């Protein structure tokens, strides 16, 4: 270690020097154990965090190089036209839309909204039947006393309404607001699709309005950060015979 000044040079030399590699692994072992122990103390919704063993080189190789036919080198794609088809965020949005088409997560079944304490976005609470006044008050009171986060179940199994109310647990904090929100009857204000901001909502251009039936709100801040208008249902003009 004495002759190597940076961690990068140590890593590079460890590739060819087995003794140095073992010394490097031994030097960070105590730190790894401390991090594991501290992480296992953390809790989220009364559940302790779990830690796993460090991946060995063979496992890393399998992760990185198993599917070479699917992933191409950067040089092969540079300058080529690409699409959003395999972009992870777009895949999640597409999944949300496919779930809506099944009839389970649709705007007419939205009864209430809950706000994620981490990302601050509203998530829709669904029910196949309408809630009466007592049930509505019960669930509102319950939600006021918990800290909800995306991907969490809405209610514990023992709750009286656990079999009646449900929420889409596939939605993560990095996803925008559910599109069903914008067409449900309990929608209060037009929130930015990407960040839920109420102020600074832009007005889509007339050209965009002429191309799509649904254009989801976009705020000035998200637009400045590279977000684009999210749209649905292109308007198709029939050619005159």
Characterise the protein shown here.
The protein has three domains: 7-77, no CATH class; 87-188, no CATH class; 189-241, no CATH class. It is 33% helix and 12% strand. The protein has eight helices and seven strands. The mean pLDDT is 80.
List the helices and strands and how they pair.
Elements: H1 7-16, H2 18-39, E1 43-44, E2 47-48, H3 57-65, H4 74-77, H5 88-101, E3 110-115, E4 122-127, H6 133-144, E5 165-167, H7 206-209, E6 212-216, H8 220-224, E7 230-234
TL;DR of this structure?
Helix content is 33%, strand content 12%.
**Tally of domains:** 3
Strand arrangement within the widest β-sheet reads: 3-4-5
Helix content: 25-40%
> Could you state the order of secondary-structure elements as H and E?
HHEEHHHEEHEHEHE
What oligomeric state is this? single chain
**Anisotropy-based shape:** flat
Count of extended strands: 7
């Amino acid at each position: 270690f004495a002759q190597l000044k940076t961690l990068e040079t140590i890593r590079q030399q460890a590739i060819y020097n087995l003794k140095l590699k073992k010394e490097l692994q031994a030097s960070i072992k105590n730190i790894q154990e401390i991090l594991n122990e501290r992480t296992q103390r953390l809790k989220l919704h009364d559940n302790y965090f779990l830690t796993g063993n460090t991946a060995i080189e063979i496992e890393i190789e399998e992760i990185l190089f198993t599917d070479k036919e699917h992933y191409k080198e950067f040089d092969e794609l540079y300058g080529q036209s690409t699409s959003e088809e395999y972009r992870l965020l777009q895949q999640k949005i597409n999944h949300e839309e496919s779930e809506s088409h099944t009839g389970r997560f649709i705007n007419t079944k939205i009864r209430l909204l809950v706000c994620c304490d981490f990302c601050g976005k509203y998530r829709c609470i669904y029910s196949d039947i309408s809630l009466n006044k007592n049930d509505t008050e019960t669930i509102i009171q319950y939600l006021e006393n918990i800290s909800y986060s995306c991907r969490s179940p809405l209610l514990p199994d023992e709750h009286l309404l656990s079999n009646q109310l449900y929420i889409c647990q596939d939605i993560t904090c990095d996803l925008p607001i559910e599109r069903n929100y914008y067409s449900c009857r309990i929608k209060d204000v037009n929130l930015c699709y990407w960040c839920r901001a109420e102020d600074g909502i832009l007005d889509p251009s007339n050209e965009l309005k002429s191309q799509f039936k649904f254009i989801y709100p976009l705020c000035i801040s998200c637009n400045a950060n590279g977000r684009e208008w999210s749209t649905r249902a292109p308007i198709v003009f029939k050619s005159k015979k």
